[in-house]
Amino acid sequence: MMNDEIKTRIENCLNTKARFTSSRDTNITLPKEDYELTYKEEVNLNNITREISETAEILFGGKGYSAKLYLRVIKKYKKEEVEILVPFSRFPTKENFGSSWTKSRGNLSSVWECLERGEDKVVDFSDHGLYYKSILTICLPG
Q1: Which of 70, 80, 58, 63 is nearest to 14 (CA)?
Q2: Each residue of 13-70: pLDDT tens digit?
Q3: Residue 31 resides in a domain
Q4: Could you tell me the CA-to-CA distances from 137 to 44, 75, 142 in Å, in that order?
Q5: Residue 22: what are its φ and ψ, rounded to 5°?
Q6: What domain range includes position 37?
Q7: Considering the domain boundaries, does residue 112 fall inside one?
Q8: N or C: which end of the chain has fewer CB within 10 A?
Q9: Is residue 8, in this structure, part of any structural domain at all?
């Protein structure tokens, strides 16, 4: 069941005249039950996330690399299709996987940019005072 805040954000994202200056303005929370995955698919995707994190440690040396896997979920809202990128899994695991973004016009998230362009991208966050210094976005097939 969508609350009023989620409905408002989705309606704003569907508005063809709306432009966004922050990806946070398109953020919603979608429950995992809405992802429509089998148990086996969930297990496999969690294993892939762990393997990506472990591979990063080997490729880049050291410890402290995390991986987050986003899925593109398509939902119907008032007879329109809404595309949402949802964080499915994270390794090392954490209770909250982070932000989901509804597709919109304007300032897309780095994850949407990667998917739209089909190109890997490194984004430097070292000047933002966050717990991470950068992100590498990779668009996986399928």
Answers
A1: 80
A2: 888 888 887 777 888 887 777 778 899 998 998 899 899 989 988 988 878 788 888 8
A3: yes
A4: 20, 24, 15
A5: -140, 135
A6: 4-137
A7: yes
A8: C
A9: yes
